[in-house]
């Protein structure tokens, strides 16, 4: 029961973050505003979006409890390098965003896509935790992973535009955005291949 409650919490909070991301990005228009934003902007919109990115950062630290659940349930194989690295790096990345550019439009692509995928993912986890009668829905796990791969392709395209068009951002932030996404794409693809493609070959 605790794991189901935790999963439902993640579904709801990520739907909320997804909708808030759409609002704070002005329905996508701010994604391509590559000029570094003013830190003196105290408009209600800026204050609201800065507060939301702060809450989103806190939620990424809460996500680290996934690892604790894996260990308590003795599912050590799920606490993989990919899982631990992803859930360790993302909170640090969001902390930097909060400290350096809490109202930066281009940075909003990450919470927009990530919260959407996490809502799907934890929805799947919730259904899967209800018992064996829902095991036929396990096939959807593969498609969630494919959506995750598409997510990183979107990040890479956006980061490439950001690299050449940005104006005034700290240079190390620019390179972190550009380098990390291909790294995650490769790791997630390796996971996808090992989990689905290699298993299908063995079955055949």
TrEMBL record:
Classification via InterPro entries: ELO_fam
Q: Kindly state a single biological-process term from the GO annotations of this entry.
A: fatty acid elongation, monounsaturated fatty acid
Q: What class of enzyme is it?
A: transferase
Give the Gene Ontology MF terms in alphabetical order.
Answer: fatty acid elongase activity
What span is annotated as the signal peptide, if there is one?
Answer: none
Q: Name one GO cellular component term.
A: endoplasmic reticulum membrane
This protein's UniProt keywords: Fatty acid biosynthesis, Fatty acid metabolism, Lipid biosynthesis, Lipid metabolism, Membrane, Transferase, Transmembrane, Transmembrane helix
What protein am I looking at?
Elongation of very long chain fatty acids protein
Note the Pfam families from the entry: ELO
Query: Where is it localised?
Result: Membrane
Give the record's membrane topology.
Answer: Multi-pass membrane protein
Q: Main site of residence?
A: membrane
Annotated family:
Belongs to the ELO family.
> tRNA processing: present as a keyword of the record?
no
Catalytic activity of the protein: a very-long-chain acyl-CoA + malonyl-CoA + H(+) = a very-long-chain 3-oxoacyl-CoA + CO2 + CoA
Q: What is its EC number?
A: 2.3.1.199
